[in-house]
Amino acid sequence: MIDKVELALDSIRPYLEADGGNVKIVEITEDMVVRLELTGTCSSCPMSTMTLKAGVEEAIKRAIPEITKVEAVNVVIA
C-alpha cells in the first residue's frame, strides 16, 4: 500500500518541489488514513491545508479509492 501511495505522490511532487516543498509518508492506519508530514516550505505555508486537500488528498484518493482520508501531522490550522 505504501508503494501505491508513493506512486500517487510522485504524480504531484514536481508541483510541490517547484515551490520548495514535499511530503513524506508517516503511516497508513488500519482504517486507511494516510498520515503525511509536509516538508520544506509546505510545512509553514499558509496555503498548506488547501494544498493537502485539493492536491495531495485528491491525487491519492484518485489512485487508491480505498483510502478514506489524508492528514498532515504537522499542519497547524489557524
Features:
40% helix, alpha+beta, 78 residues, 26% strand, 3-stranded mixed β-sheet, 3 strands, single chain
Mean pLDDT rating: 91
Number of separate helices: 3
Helical proportion? Answer: 25-40%
Order of strands, widest sheet: 1-2-3
| Largest beta-sheet characterization | 3 strands, mixed
Strand content: 25-35%
Sketch the topology as an H/E string, one letter per element: HHEEHE
Which regions are unreliable across 5 or more consecutive residues at pLDDT < 50?
none
- Per DSSP E runs of 2 or more residues, the count of β-strands stands at 3
Radius of gyration: 11 Å
Gross morphology is globular
Helical/strand content category = alpha+beta
Distance between the termini: 32 Å
Notes on the protein architecture:
It is a single chain. Helices cover 40% and strands 26% of the residues. The protein is built from three helices and three strands. α1 (2-10) packs across α3 (48-63). A three-stranded mixed β-sheet has the order 1-2-3. The relative contact order is 0.23. The longest helix is centred in the C-terminal third of the chain and has 16 residues, at 48-63. It is α+β, with helices and mostly antiparallel strands. It has helices at residues 2-10, 13-18, 48-63; strands spanning 21-28, 33-40, 69-72. The termini are far apart. The model has no long low-confidence stretch (mean pLDDT 91). The radius of gyration is 11 Å and the shape is globular.
Would you spell out the secondary-structure blueprint of this structure?
Elements: H1 2-10, H2 13-18, E1 21-28, E2 33-40, H3 48-63, E3 69-72
Helix pairs in contact: 1-3
